[in-house]
Amino acid sequence: MSSYDAIAELYDPWSVSVVEDVAFYLEEARRSGGPVVELGVGTGRIAVPIAADGIRVIGVDSSRGMLDVCARRAALAGVEIDLRVGDLREPPVDELVPLVICPFRSLLHMHTDEDRLAVFAAAHRLLLRDGRFVFDVFAPDAADIALTQDRWLEREPGIFERAVWDEAARTLTRQGVDVIVTSGGDHSTRAAQQATATIPIVFLEAADPVGAGFVKSLARPGGNITGLADLGLELVPKGLEIFRELIPRLRRVLLVYDATNDFTVSQLPVYRDAAQRLGLMLVERPVRTEDEARSVISAIKKSEIDGIFSPRVLSQNIPGLILEIAPKRGIPTMFETPFYVERAGLASYGADKYALGRQAARLVDKILKGAKPGDIPVEQPTKFELAINVKAAKALGIVIPQSMLLRADRLIQ
To answer: How far apart are CA 139 and CA 145, in angstroms?
Structure first.
């Protein structure tokens, strides 16, 4: 019995944010023409997209539980994968193939040189002449090992919440609903996507629906998913600009971010470029846990920064901690949604969530009238909202310019 059998149902919620390698391995499979042997196929995160492209896949994994999840995912996608229980060092495959893959650091489960060489030898045995063995690994340092040893479930914040979403999505598909509407970010959309390949799905907030693998393109999504891209990343420069207008003395802006969240880290260049164009100094503080985020925000002195710009991603509860700590320290704050401004945050700028809901309702209406989600272009927000907490500004000793008060969509007294 594999140790992964016990956590097979949690694996997809945990790895839901890992999408950056799918296109790479899919392209490798296309180049080879197939068949493809995947060592450590797991729940089919890579194998199902390859099979969906019409390429035969033989998937090997030591965990029967993971293979059961993979079989369900393949069935939902309407594809077949030849799944086999076996050891990566002695895969139960006899035929020769042009490509063997071992994605997502699966090779690191081999703890000795002898085991790793055995996997290489097995892959070599399976390959046709001029065939290729493609894999990815990384070299963890002592800190990585100490942090994650026996604690892999803790590395991804919200795993259990996403597991609940995943079960909720499966429940909806079993009930035969006509449309699934998702909100709250990519995790809920990913859960719905994994649960069904036929029921229409409309997402309300997706930062990069193409990059996340929800749609093929914004103009022609394809498949059973469409929705609304939230433009959150594109609005970062405007948010910083408004923050500077609110506080003319703004020079040093604190950005606390989750260093364990790949999506958040990928956004950093946008924040840096915007700050540089506006003549602001971005004071970056990466954190890995909620406790570390609390310590970092609590330790910041008012004399060290002029304001805090909240990240749009909720992981590690960073926006909540900023809201809890900054007003008590007399530090101005800028958020993405009015939720925080209603609770003592200084200001926010972002897409109007109510307007997004109305846009999503129109998409649902089209689908219920017979339109296919794959033919409905992904829309973008059409209404944006600036909210200012006047009471918070007074407490901070900030005089809001009259022009800014007139521009605000919501003034909270």
So the answer is: 10
Which of 298-333 are b and which e, b meaning 16 or more Cβ less than 10 Å from the residue's Cβ? Answer: eebeeeebbbbbbbbbbbbebbbbbbebbbeeebbb
Give the model confidence (pLDDT) of 13-44 as tens digits. 777 667 778 888 999 999 999 999 999 999 99
The per-residue pLDDT for range 45-69, each reduced to its tens digit, is 999 999 999 999 999 999 999 999 9
Phi and psi, residue 72, nearest 5°: -65, -45
User: Coil, strand, or helix at residue 345?
Assistant: coil
Query: Looking at residue 106, what DSSP letter applies?
Result: G
Residue 104 is given by DSSP the state: T
DSSP labels for 165-225?
HHHHHHHHHHHT-S-EEE-SSHHHHHHHHHH-SSS-EEEEEES-TTTTTS-S-SS---TTE
Strand partners of residue 206: 229
In CATH, what is the architecture of 3-154? Answer: 3-Layer(aba) Sandwich (3.40)
Would you call the peptide bond into 35 cis, given omega within 30 degrees of 0 as the criterion? yes
The strand order across the sheet containing 225-229 reads: 180-182, 201-206, 225-229
Question: Where do the structural domains in the chain lie, given as residue ranges?
Answer: 3-154
Sign of CA dihedral 271, 277, 278, 279: positive
- Long-range contacts made by residues 49-58, C-beta under 8 angstroms, separation at least 24? 49/22, 49/213, 50/25, 50/26, 51/77, 51/79, 51/80, 51/81, 52/77, 52/78, 52/79, 53/26, 53/29, 55/29, 55/30, 56/82, 57/29, 57/81, 57/82, 58/82, 58/84, 58/93, 58/97
Q: To which H or E segment does residue 319 belong?
A: helix 318-329
Instruction: Centre a 10 Å sphere on the Cβ of residue 248 and count the other Cβ atoms it contains.
Output: 10
pTM: 0.59
From edge to edge, which strands make up the β-sheet containing 410-412? Answer: 281-287, 252-258, 307-309, 333-335, 347-351, 384-389, 410-412
Cβ(191)–Cβ(169) below 8 Å: yes
